[in-house]
Amino acid sequence: MTNIKFGTIGGGVMGEALLSRLIAQKVYLPREILVSEPGVKRREFLTEKYGIGTTASNLEVAAATEVLFLAIKPQVFDTVALELAVAADRKQGNNGETANSQPEALVVSILAGVPLSKLEPAFPGRGVLRVMPNTPATVGAGMSAIAPGKLVQPADLELVKRIFQAVGEVVEVPESMLDAVTGLSGSGPGYVAILIEALTDGGVCAGLPRAIASQLALQTVFGTAKLLQETGMHPAELKDRVTSPGGTTIAGIAKLESNGFRSALIEAVKAAYLRSQELGK
Ligand SMILES: NC(=O)C1=CN([C@@H]2O[C@H](COP(=O)(O)OP(=O)(O)OC[C@H]3O[C@@H](n4cnc5c(N)ncnc54)[C@H](OP(=O)(O)O)[C@@H]3O)[C@@H](O)[C@H]2O)C=CC1
Ligand SMILES: O=C(O)[C@@H]1CCC=N1
Structural domain of residue 206, as residue ranges? Predict the structure, then answer.
């Protein structure tokens, strides 16, 4: 009997973000985690850092685990699905069992774009969920949106919600919203990181040492998000409160507006949403 509860195909950035937090939160023991990765150096790194099992074989993970996570790039999905299907056919020919994983194993895909209409046929008869998490999951401040497929039972959905609640907030959405979710919260940490970097550069430009500018930028973004989250205040109200008549903030905001700051962010989310749609084709 296997004791693998969290098997992941692809142990890159997001796979590691999830498993590191799930181990830290004691949702899974390291020995309950198995990750397949093509790179030997990457496998050694993951095993040494987290004490988890690693393998070069996707089939080994798929056959061993209770919950199968897909954390490969969308562009690799067809290859991996074919690999699992060929192995399943071969095993079915041999002894009539389903080979591409434990028969009841749930499949959780975090792939951008790839729709349930492609995922479900790759795992016939099995519950498949799509989840779009984000990298702040690493520190328990993630945002994950879950869209369950047709065969997912209520208890399975609860299980997957509990897993992602251990790495941050969770919202359930219809699959039709997942590309938009990807454009906003999936890709969002990239936009916010650039915002923080640019604010820091602005501070340096105005004469601050970089270390101090960096601390100010980071805490200002963090504090503003915390203030809005804890009070429920509308962002426009906070902006109005900071903006003294004829003062500094409105001078800064006027520059942001004349440089298209808002529309740049709106366009960024829209471009990422459209790219997510493309990746699913
Ligand atoms: N990064 C993020 O912020 C988020 C990513 N996602 C989704 O997560 C998925 C993974 O993204 P991310 O972690 O950033 O990407 P990474 O490239 O960091 O991770 C993917 C991993 O899969 C490995 N891999 C490549 N081919 C195979 C294969 N045939 N079998 C098994 N493993 C393979 C890669 O190895 P190698 O590098 O050697 O090719 C790599 O380590 C994507 O589908 C993405 O859409 C979702 C939400 C947020
Ligand atoms: O850039 C990407 O495609 C992935 C999906 C969301 C965040 N990173």
Answer: 187-280
